[in-house]
Amino acid sequence: MAVSLGPDQCSSGTFTAPALFGAEILGLKASTVQNFTRYVSDQEFAHNPEVFVQDAAFCNVTVTYTHPGQNDVIIVETWLPFEWNGRLQAVGGGGWTTGRTELTQSMMAGALSTGYATSTTDGGFGHSQTPIPWALLSPGNVNLYALQNMGSVTLRDQAMIAKALIRSFYGQPPEFSYFNGCSHGGRQGYQLAQRYPDAYDGIAASAPAIYWSQFLHAMLWPQVVMKSLGQYPRGCELDYIQSAVISLCDDKDGVSDGIIMDPDACEFEPSSLIGTSFYCREIESDMAISEAAATVAAGFQRGARGPNDEFLWHGPNWGSNSTTTIFGTPGLAATLCENSTCSGLPFPFGLWWAGLFIDKDPNFDFASLTAKRFAEQFHLGFQEYTSIIGTTDPDLTLFQRAGGKMVTYHGLNDELTPSKGTRDYYEAVTKITPDVHSFYRFFEVPGLGHCYGGNGGQPTRLFEALRAWVEEGIAPQNVVIDVPGNGSREERVICPYPQKVRASQSRRPGSVKFYCSSD
């Protein structure tokens, strides 16, 4: 039920301090915000189209609290619109943050634009974007309370606090509650479904950073391969190999558009390109693909391996960018070249995980990491941290019984969190709950990078599909996306796994029909 209130309701005295077992409320502050204006792109507002928020008015409530004995201070920020649609849309974080960042503010603004109350938590990490300030209490001793806060505890707290504030302000609980996040926010959504199954009615959680230790540590694998070779290929070599594999496998789906629609069907050996001459923009000259570049490209796609070539973790699919992320930062196989000498650029997220959490050493030196030690670290991280932040429990029966619904998309060109990890998880859930489709659906998006970017289309209709599923019982089938190209946008579909999108020529010359198939 929609509710309309005035700014005079927005005062600290309106609210009763939320009752939170195991926590102590340190403070509550309420302030009126008016004439709030912000543009939010569809890349910032996961699962939703772009919005322009204009002259919005809301009550901004911050609750500061601690878990006694744990030496933490956590802030939950909740925006309560004066024109409320009766619903809550909490948002997740990204990278090494739980929330309360510029990104989460954009997501909150997007939710606010359609009348949602919305909430975020800083998890106790303030404005820190990295784990460096808090990971270690001292060399050899990880701050497990902080990691536990990030992994799960503050997610429960956020839901309980936001709902309590809504009840105080509007005089009624939210009719429906949702959680929205991508990347780390996606992992948070999965953790909520696994550990706090009645916290939200609907969860939109995409490109989820689940199997936390495995995927973070595997981010170092391309650099381990280069270190083992003693050779560091130029980025232009790896970029050329990426372009070559797209050219080879693009047409297999019947549409020439720079997108590998089904990476599973893409058979490619980078070694076939050794000796191929191409123009390298970095050196403004022609050069040939080296054996080292082919080996690194193969390692990037195959994923991390142990001493006997045993599988450790997935790599990104063919067509994913190995040298640059969608954020414009160096990718997993990036190198730095000065004149004719190149060196590796290990990805910071993997370095922090291996050094601070597995070795527990603030002076961890990647230069000393051998392939053998990498495999040992991999298993240690899995053993020590899966229960805290791994987010791998495939038993979602309590979430199903609570009536929860969850939707996920994962870009098939995700260069950071391999989409095969999410596929593994969905198949693991299916083994326990064969009717998984009745409450949890997973969509693979051809051409899409990590949460956004690449040549694929952004799933901007997925949140509304989730809402229709929760509130009207209409399960999402083939979800329409808009794929950019040649100055226009083309409508295509993404399909609930295990279906895949296929293309066929339509009766109209030059046009293509996209559909879902179980073949």
Characteristics:
519 residues, alpha/beta, eleven-stranded mixed beta sheet, two-stranded antiparallel ribbon, 12 helices, globular
Major sheet characteristics = 11 strands, mixed
Weakly predicted, low-confidence segments: none
Q: Taking strands numbered 1, 2, ... along the chain, how are they ordered across the largest sheet?
A: 2-3-4-7-6-10-11-16-17-19-18
Classify the helix fraction into a percent range. 25-40%
Overall strand count:
21
Report the span from N to C terminus: 44 Å
Radius of gyration: 24 Å
Number of helical segments with 4 or more residues: 12
What general form does the structure show? globular
Q: How much β-strand is present in the residues?
A: 15-25%
Question: Pairing-aware structural class of the strands and helices?
Answer: alpha/beta
pLDDT averaged residue by residue: 95
